[in-house]
Design brief:
This protein is mainly α and about 325 residues long. It has a single domain (about 15-35, about 45-305), classed as Orthogonal Bundle (Farnesyl Diphosphate Synthase), CATH 1.10.600. It has helices at about 5-10, 20-35, 50-70, 75-80, 85, 95-115, 115-135, 145-165, 175-190, 195-200, 210, 215-235, 240-255, 260-280, 285-305. Helix 3 (about 50-70) runs antiparallel to helix 8. The longest helix is centred in the first third of the chain and has 24 residues, at about 50-70. It is globular and about 50 Å long. The chain starts with 5 loop residues before the first helix and ends in a 16-residue tail after the last helix.
Length: about 325
């Protein structure tokens, strides 16, 4: 049995991959504030406490979903040499289930007691989609295209809606403003499935990348980025348009030369860029992100002698 650390249980929720949730939540809050209030100070230092409460409970929910995904993916992770906590036995699976249940029940009670019905609906839909994504017999993560759709909607829209509804009332225009973020999340996700093609196929798991191959998958991501730019222009969301325009040539290069290294760089550039821009607008968000990144680097180096997170792929990651 591996020696456990109390920190293992925190990092089991994968705080670094939670970053897109933070980004899309604050994107939703930002647009709702401009839609309802008509202004947004720069930098914005007056984010309401209720937004931060929502930020915590929604991220805990998604953390629970990530744990479920890891439980279902233990064999794949052993092959791909990633997410060691469950795959290598640092945390017993039953401990992971207990943590999952707590991370659903406690935030769920808070959401029910203190947030409006529309927010609770988003919370419940997020949970249901997260379970359907990983758990058989549905297991959307094993179904090409559907895996991308689920991630695009789950990360790109539901997190966006959670940010919007944390402080502001429901308005149907939310769906229109959220469309560019759905496409952007889809573009980022579809390319993240490329490095795992070999390990996934070894156990019969067919993702979008496994079905299309690296080059076609990157082309799919490019089309989604073009859609992001188009819809972002329509909604006059210059933030998401700027990020997509900067990311597009990097994706095109990875499509023309679809090595694991190029693809990982493309994916690891676009999402952080959006996060940096939002972090400049919301400095406290930037502080949280820096804290998580630095603590993760220290934890993974001391615990597994792994450099993580990193934008430049490591030698182990680019082995094809």
């Amino acid at each position: 049995m591996k020696k456990r650390s109390i920190f293992d249980y925190f990092f089991l929720i994968r705080p670094v991959p939670l970053a897109p949730i933070w980004i899309f939540m604050f994107a939703g809050y930002r647009i709702a504030r401009m839609h309802f209030d008509g202004n947004l100070p720069f930098p914005c230092l007056d984010v309401p406490g209720k937004m931060w409460s929502s930020f915590v409970i929604y991220n805990l929910l998604v953390g629970a979903i990530y744990i479920i995904n890891q439980i279902m993916d233990i064999e794949t992770d052993k092959i791909n040499r990633k997410l060691f906590l469950l795959a290598d036995g640092y945390i017993p699976v039953w401990h992971a289930w207990v943590e999952t249940i707590l991370l659903v029940i406690v935030p769920g009670i808070i959401a029910y007691m203190y947030f409006p019905t529309a927010y609770l609906v988003v919370f419940v839909i997020s949970l249901i989609m997260g379970v359907f994504y990983s758990v058989p017999p549905i297991a959307v993560k094993n179904r090409p295209i559907w895996d991308t759709f689920a991630n695009a909607v789950g990360n790109g829209f539901l997190a966006f809606a959670a940010g919007w509804l944390s402080v502001y009332k429901f308005d149907p225009v939310m769906f229109r403003y959220g469309l560019p973020y759905i496409l952007a999340a889809g573009a980022a996700f579809v390319c993240t499935t490329v490095p795992d093609i070999k390990g996934d196929l070894a156990i019969g798991k067919i993702t979008t990348a496994g079905a299309l191959g690296p080059a076609s998958t990157m082309l799919f991501g490019i089309l989604l980025l073009v859609g992001t730019i188009t819809t972002g222009l329509f909604t006059k969301d210059w933030l998401i348009v700027s990020v997509a325009v900067i990311s597009l040539p990097i994706y095109i290069y990875a499509w023309r030369k679809p090595t694991i290294k190029n693809i990982l760089i493309a994916v690891r550039t676009s999402a952080p860029l959006l996060g940096i821009l939002l972090g400049i607008m919301f400095p406290v968000l930037m502080a949280v992100a820096i804290g998580i990144v630095l603590s993760s680097k220290i934890y993974y180096k001391l615990r597994f002698n792994v450099t993580y997170p990193t934008i430049i792929p490591t030698r182990e990651e680019v082995q094809e």
